Amino acid sequence: MSQNYTGSHSPLVTTEPYKEFPANRYVESVSDASHQLDESQKNVEIEPFLNDETPPALSVADAIAQMLVNLGVNNAFGVAGGAMASLWGALSNSTINVLNFRHEAGAAFAATEAYFANNRPTVVFTTAGPGITNALTGLFAARGEGAKVILLSACTSAPQRGRWAIQETSTYTLPSGGIFTSGALFNYAITIESAAQLPQIFRKLALAMAQPGGFVAHLSVPTAVQTSLVENIALPQLDVSPFPMTASKEAIAKSVELLSSGPFAIWVGFGARDAAEEIIELAERTGAAVMCSPRGKGIFPEDHPQFVGVTGLGGHASVLTYMEQQPPLRTLVLGTRLGEPTSFWSSALVPKEGFVHVDIDPEVPGVAYPHVETFGVRSDIKAFVEELLQQLPDAPDSTTLSLPRPEHKAIEPAPEVDYPVRPEVLMAAIQKIIVEDSDAVVMAECGNSFTWSTHLLQFSEANRYRVSTGVGAMGHAVTGVLGAAVANNGKAVGIVGDGAMLMNNEISTAVKYKIPAIWIVLNDARYNMCHQGMKILGLKGADATLPPTNFAMIARGMGAEAIVVIKESDIEAALQQAMASTVPFLIDVVIDADRPAPSGARNKSLAAQGVKSSAAKNGAKQVSFPMV
């Protein structure tokens, strides 16, 4: 049933078989399983009904809710509507914790972050028509981030299609390809026209949820089908063990050979988040320098002497210093796509002999740097590093030069009037009060919030810091912070811009369910990454300003606690007050809009895509967008 969230409630999901479904266990070879699975992954344990047992009458909606519970779902986020009333009711009367949001995109962002917080698949529910289309950006982010999310939507029943039904959802009104079929958005999508489809559908979902990596599915259920009965159909009790994805002996041997031929560096990405201990052991045994992507912060402790910095957007110049002064022969890439936010596709990050690139997706290695020698390995990162540790010979003892460390400039003394707040002062306070003195998840919104947080905050453990580098949608952290708090049963903090906070927030949702989310709003009355970037590029006439907004007043009007901070001397007390609060809390920080954000060398990647600054056209040296 739907429940209010509290920080101490026990998990709502049980994986025990339903008493109504007594069953014998058998092993079935599933030949029609997900097209993404290897042949070795197709043996699945399924529990059907006993032939002599008659299951109770269930509606399709009730059966779907029960099967979702069996898949391990314990949270569902969405916005209801008449076309999916039966599904909504079934979810609300199951053991799934149902949270009703104000907007479907926010629900999808929250579901994505809930998955990353507890590694359990999550559900997004929407009604027909705009319910689906509103959710698409969040679901696009879920796919790009590698989450396991199931969209459960309503669509128009067959007899009414093409007759201008309210919010008609059919091929007459929406493209079938991409929304109702598998493709770039959904790994798996289907319209359920009959209860007889349910066993096959949930078998496929169980297999998909057990394999490594993300999986985003769409189950579209016509309104009339939701209330139809499940009769004489054996709904399976799914019990699928996780599928390990390990490299071949030949791939391991080749990796050992390449990495043993000279000094190598390790480039850690978000896909390596479950292998933190093994990566630390590998680095310390070999003396390898370690760098990470923005999403990979904390997987390798940032205070470790072998950590040379974050690459890409909001990254550190110390990485380039290392590559110039102590260049490795090769770089072992673990679980990062090396896309623009991580690398800017910079040739300065390419080692002399290329990459050994490990990823669960065989299409990743060699794509970001197609001209660079790359040995690709398809494997779970943890399994690969464990095997590598067994096979890789110990590095010979030698004097190792001290490695460059991420630069952290001393903060200048506060001016006589400590107003407005300098971003670097705010980040130092967040580091002290939230990062070091709590276990809260910290999320940074795209834009300058991303660059300041990524550049200045330091984490020493995995899964504490979250940013989106795939879609990078505004509103992701603003709403995703609710999903992280719910799934973690504790505090989650969103560092966000005023533009994102205006675009899509769920303060009232947090109030309704007593979710202890915290928003720290960098309030500068601008889309400041755009404002600073356009100014640096010399592109005039574009307006990126916003009307000044009192976010604390808005939050209090919705029932949350809130405070405005205009002086640097008040920051720490405000953060402590927020962390001590048991209800949603917003800190509205009037930020110095003119401090240049440390975004890294993005101007070069923009130039590669055709964006030219006025300075460059006149022969002057380009600067970063916004600035290094």
Report on the structure:
The model is unreliable at 1-51, 602-609 and 614-628 (pLDDT under 50). It contains 21 helices and 23 strands. Helix 1 (60-70) crosses helix 2 (85-92), helix 3 (104-118) crosses helix 14 and helix 8 packs parallel to helix 11 (381-391). Strand 4, helix 2 (85-92) and strand 5 (97-100) form a beta-alpha-beta unit. The protein has 628 residues and is α/β, with parallel strands linked by helices. 32% of the residues lie in helices and 17% in strands. It has three domains: 26-239, Thiamin diphosphate (ThDP)-binding fold, Pyr/PP domains (Rossmann fold); 249-391, Rossmann fold, CATH 3.40.50; 423-590, 3-Layer(aba) Sandwich (Rossmann fold). A six-stranded parallel beta sheet has the order 5-4-6-7-9-8, sandwiched between helices.
According to CATH, the fold-level topology of the largest domain is: Rossmann fold
Which residues sit in consecutive blocks of at least 5 with pLDDT less than 50?
A: 1-51, 602-609, 614-628
Write down the domain tally.
3
CATH 2nd-level architecture of the largest domain: 3-Layer(aba) Sandwich
Number of helices: 21
Label this structure with key terms.
single chain, 628 residues, alpha/beta, Rossmann fold, 3 domains, 6-stranded parallel sheet, 21 helices, 23 strands, globular, disordered N terminus, disordered C terminus
